[in-house]
Specification:
The chain is α+β, with helices and mostly antiparallel strands. Helices cover about 40% and strands about 20% of the residues.
């Protein structure tokens, strides 16, 4: 593969490593661009991020063939995860962003349920950046670095955590669809909404963290400037 640092466009850099958009070579004849995720940082950080990339690769292998999830083209050199580039914008949840909201969120729920049947919960769906809106107005799920998996038939704590993560995915779907207005949830969609014990514990902790970190103040200040 060509040097992504020299020939790619840096899209993001975070705790999972760096993400580049690269023009696809002849080994990828069906796509114009690919995404390359690779580890970076100190030797210890690089080792951990390489482990995360290998784990994410196995997750994508489980999800292969599900419409609405990028194709995975493999793990090159053990430290470069190569994915299909999806043209789209992160979900912003503005009122005029999606022409057909019912179609969009119905498709998003189908993607989630297909992933759950494959033994994968996204587990980070409340971050709108992980949901793309394509030019056709359809959803794509990206970034499975925090995904939780569980093999069929496996019981115990891991199975419980997996079920909780699946429900958290669906709760996030409800939150996005109804813009956080839980009193407006339709009767049919209410079947998918059930706050989990993990969320009940995390919510007050999140409020405390926002106060301590000043996040709420910064958000209010940005709104006042806009």
């Amino acid at each position: 593969m060509v040097s992504v640092e020299q020939n790619g466009e840096l899209l993001s850099s975070g705790y999972q490593g760096v993400v580049y958009k690269v023009a696809a070579g002849p080994e990828y004849p069906d796509v114009q661009f690919i995404i390359v995720k690779q580890a970076m940082g100190s030797p210890l950080a690089r080792w951990f991020r390489n482990w995360m990339l290998r784990r994410e690769y196995r997750v994508y292998m489980r999800l292969a063939g599900i419409v609405g999830i990028p194709k995975c083209f493999g793990l090159q050199d053990g430290n470069r995860l190569v994915l299909e580039f999806i043209e789209g914008q992160p979900l912003k949840l503005s009122s005029g962003e999606i022409d057909d909201r019912e179609r969009f969120f119905s498709s998003l729920r189908d993607i989630l349920q297909s992933a759950h049947c494959a033994g994968v919960a996204h587990a980070d769906l409340k971050r709108k950046e992980n949901i793309l809106v394509t030019p056709d107005g359809l959803p794509y799920l990206i970034d499975f670095g925090s995904a939780i998996t569980c093999a069929d038939g496996r019981g115990g704590l891991r199975r419980w955590i997996f079920r909780q993560a699946c429900q958290i995915d669906l709760n996030a779907w409800i939150k996005h669809k109804y813009l956080g207005r839980y009193d407006e949830i339709g009767s049919a969609d209410m079947l998918f909404y059930q706050p989990t014990s993990i969320e009940r514990v995390a919510q007050p902790l999140r409020r405390i963290w926002r106060k301590l970190s000043g996040r709420q103040w910064r958000k209010a200040r940005r709104r006042s400037r806009s």
